[in-house]
Amino acid sequence: MKHYLDFEKPIVELQRKLDDLKMHPENHSLGISIEEEIAQIERKIEETRRQIFSQLTPWQRVQLARHPKRPYTLDYLNEVFDGFSELHGDRAYGDDQAMVGGLARLEGHKVMVVGTQKGRDTKENIRRNFGAAHPEGYRKALRLMQMANKFDLPIITLIDTAGAYPGVGAEKRHIAEAIAVNLREMMLMEVPILSVVIGEGGSGGALGIGIGDRLLLMENAYYSVISPEGCAAILWKDRSSAPKAAESLKITANDLLEMEIADTIVPEPLGGAHNDFKTAADSLKGYLLEHLASLRRLSPKERLEQRYAKYRSIGHYMEKETEKESESV
């Protein structure tokens, strides 16, 4: 069963009309063949889809990033990579199912892949904790990345989380410290690191596996310090102002590319990755191979220098003189 978002209603109405016509051909317009009428509606659906998806607002892209049918980390692991062998546990507390990772091949290249994983239904979402990792998830990710660094394997991280788990148990087991250690250690790893936001990229939960040489964003993904709803609740005291917050936060792939935070936007099929997963996966695979080849040509020293420069360049700002300061000068 297809899941449509609010802004897709014009497409839904046309699709319903098309389905009804195919099921009840006797209802077609007089003076025109049924084949011609079907073709006209199909063209109208395609035209409407192009019109809607060519002018999406930031909030609509957030809705697409959260689409329940959108491909998740394990979907990309099965489609983009070969021979994925999952590794479990942080060797200290337990195995967090919200964070998955293991060895795989990308067109013959041996790599380590780590990513956050959501669930498709209620039962799986409970097991995966809705993609919100605990401290042991980040420690597992770090253990796998350290293994990759030891054996000279490139690291690829797939990010799709609203944020790290904020519960009491996570705080007791030091979630902030776990994320902070990951930031420090990823910054110093000598192997190539590619990070891809495939859906939601929320807060420190995303950043905990997001430090690397290249940041790629799927076309309808977002990357933000806070969710639009959280921002709206703080600034406007009203979560219904989330669309306004999404606009102000500059969280879309285009915004992040313009600010030179993202390095590449990975195109998605018209209507989103969930409409044609194979095409989306092939697109991602091509970009991963391209960037991996580019990073492989650099020495570890050059990669570390470029990585350092990349993050040092983020967050430049200018101070405006106040009237008092101007007068005193």
Written description of the protein model:
By secondary structure, the chain is an alpha/beta fold. The chain folds into two domains: 6-55; 62-312, 2-enoyl-CoA Hydratase, Chain A, domain 1 (Alpha-Beta Complex), CATH 3.90.226.10. 48% of the residues lie in helices and 15% in strands. The chain contains 15 helices and eight strands. Strands 1, 2, 3, 4, 5, 6, 7 and 8 form an eight-stranded mixed beta sheet that branches. Strand 2 and strand 3 (109-116) form a beta hairpin. The radius of gyration is 23 Å and the shape is globular. It starts with 8 loop residues before the first helix and ends with a helix. The model has no long low-confidence stretch (mean pLDDT 91).
- What's the main sheet like? 8 strands, mixed
Secondary structure class reads alpha/beta
What does the overall shape look like? globular
CATH topology of the largest domain: 2-enoyl-CoA Hydratase, Chain A, domain 1
CATH architecture of the largest domain: Alpha-Beta Complex
Unreliable residue stretches: none
Distance between the termini: 68 Å
- Bin the helical content: 40-55%
Strand content: 5-15%
- Please tally the β strands and state the result: 8
Radius of gyration, Cα only, in angstroms?
23 Å
Question: Quick summary of this structure?
Answer:
With 329 residues, this protein is of the alpha/beta class.
Properties at a glance:
329 residues, alpha/beta, 2-enoyl-CoA Hydratase, Chain A, domain 1, 2 domains, eight-stranded mixed beta sheet, 8 strands, globular
